[in-house]
Amino acid sequence: MQGHELAKALRAAYLGLHRQTDAQFTRWGVTANQFVVLAELSEEDALTQRELVTRTTSDPSTLRAMLVLLERRGFVERREHPSDKRARSVSLTRKGRSTFEGMWADSQDLRRRLVASLKPGEAKGLVAALKRIAATMAPDPDGSRPGGAK
Amino acid sequence: MQGHELAKALRAAYLGLHRQTDAQFTRWGVTANQFVVLAELSEEDALTQRELVTRTTSDPSTLRAMLVLLERRGFVERREHPSDKRARSVSLTRKGRSTFEGMWADSQDLRRRLVASLKPGEAKGLVAALKRIAATMAPDPDGSRPGGAK
DNA sequence: TATTGTTATACTCTATAACTATA
DNA sequence: TATAGTTATAGAGTATAACAATA
């Protein structure tokens, strides 16, 4: 029963944030999920799709679909990887970077409100707990049961 | 920066749980989102679609699409509401209820793992914090800014 | 052999706008 | 006038399986 309560609260919090984010970014023509990709790219010069899949906890084919959309809009570039000819080197275009910066500024207040809904000093512990949940729920890379039997 | 960190952790935790849930329910042919609807219905004899929209923080037309799928599978019934002829009275069929109970049992371990990823006594505060976030992020019913200016 | 990414395909979820019928 | 729900429509995200090229 406690687990279900937690699951419901987690869902409600995430979906609320997700929709507020989507609403905030409507005028930029970018979805909340796409923003996540742009945000990851903004922290590096370039990333392979494989790395982006890991960082966004996505799927190779899902991520590709998103990148194609972002590429069409001119926000993202996929070049040949310098050392690995299988891989693609994904990076923000100049337009993509400036758009991301605008969106980042535009969403400051939303992040402020997110933090403001917590008690002082509560954020740190919350983030830690959420990260532990995420780790527990991460897909088994091999046959291991995450959080399962010894 | 703190807000973004929190947003990322919230997303990672939710998506992890969501995918584990989907994976767990693959063999039942029911998605994690559909399970949420079944779970709400399992707590009442019947609900209107309007009430279900509120409880699942969904959209009238999204919810309808889900109900149509669940109805096709014989899990759910939509009857004429006794007192309001506009409304539909949605309830689990016998098959829907027994399926839900099977799924509930099948997902016990997942909920146990969810709770086990927390420190003892941490769950309560976490749920409270998540609910506060959800309340802050709830859509404005009118023109009020949730968490915004006075 | 394993890995990176693509393609084809299909389905769920999501949402908007215009609509019907009741309240 | 407002509310409950439907319809049409569209697009995003998700995932699987088979595949090609490269490591």
Question: Could you characterize what this model shows?
Answer:
Two copies of one chain form a homodimer. A three-stranded antiparallel β-sheet of chain A has the order 1-3-2. Chain A is 62% helix and 8% strand. In chain A, a hairpin with a 7-residue loop joins strand 2 (76-80) and strand 3. With 150 residues, chain A is mostly helical. Residues 142-150 of chain A have low confidence and may be disordered. Chain A binds a DNA duplex (23 and 23 nucleotides) through residues 22, 31, 33-34, 48-50, 58-62, 64-66, 69, 81, 84-88.
Properties at a glance:
150 residues; mainly alpha; disordered C terminus; 7 helices; 62% helix; homodimer
The total count of strands of chain A amounts to 3
- Oligomerization category of the chains in this entry: homodimer
Sheet-strand content of chain A, in percent, reads 5-15%
Largest sheet of chain A: 3 strands, antiparallel
The total of helices of chain A stands at 7
Helix content of chain A: 55-70%
Q: TL;DR of this structure?
A:
Chain A has 150 residues and is mainly alpha-helical. Chain A has seven helices and three strands.
Secondary structure: elements and pairs:
The structure is a homodimer of 150-residue chains.
Chain A: H1 2-25, H2 32-42, E1 47-48, H3 49-55, H4 60-72, E2 76-80, E3 88-92, H5 94-106, H6 108-116, H7 122-137
Antiparallel strand pairs in A: 1-3, 2-3
Helix pairs in contact in A: 2-5
The structure holds a DNA duplex (23 and 23 nucleotides).
